[in-house]
Amino acid sequence: MKLTTERLRKQLEKRVVSQCTTTRPDLEHFATSIAGATFERIFCKGKHIFFDFGSDRFLNNHLLMRGRWRRTADRFLLLPAEIWIAFEVANCTVYNYMGQVFRIFDAGRLVEHLNSLGPDIMDENCTEQDIARALSQRSEPLGELLLDQAVVSGVGNVAKSESLFLAGLGPETRAECLSEDSLVRLARSIMQVMWGSYRSGGRWTHRVYRRAGKHCFECGARIIMIRQGKQKRSTYFCPSCQPRG
Prior knowledge:
Blueprint (H helix, E strand, L loop, with lengths): L1 H11 L6 E4 L5 H6 L7 E5 L2 E5 L5 E5 L5 E5 L10 E6 L4 E5 L3 E5 L1 H9 L12 H8 L6 H4 L11 H11 L12 H20 L24 E5 L4 E5 L8
Antiparallel strand pairs: 1-6, 2-3, 3-4, 4-8, 5-7, 6-7, 9-10
Helix pairs in contact: 4-7, 6-7
């Protein structure tokens, strides 16, 4: 999300909204009201993007699995249904494709929402100790815990599996059972995976993710996929390098 936010900053920050259109009935009033407003600031925390229009108006977007932000030099006469919102500025139109989640906040609700999220892995000030502290004393299996944005903010399904592999920890191991050294090792692995993807332009190195049935690059054992949590999210791991616990 950090890369997406940085692109949006370059395209929109400090620019004036000449027109905003939407296909979402719940955003119609907002879209009309921000014509002439300026993108004062665009920032993110974890998987959440925030647009600050000044005057106590903030737009929050979570892309989930399918959402995308795109840019075109064209203007839309009529928005296709899959485009949820489009911002026209001086030289382009920046639009959201399958936006997934949009919410409108005032300053009070913004602070409340930001405080509900755990430490942001991609914040330059976030440390291994911050992450380890957030993970400690929790009873959930690691494969579920790492996706809880209230605990640590920004980890998705790919980073979860890859981080656990690098740390040598099984996804069914419970955080409360880990030593301080193991928690710090996991925190270090999360940061390595997340920042590695950022520095490579959003690409991921798949050591275990989506490699079920294939041989582990380290030990040759076959990668396993299990489903965890209420949403039955997939987790990939090596049963030899990451003992089930």
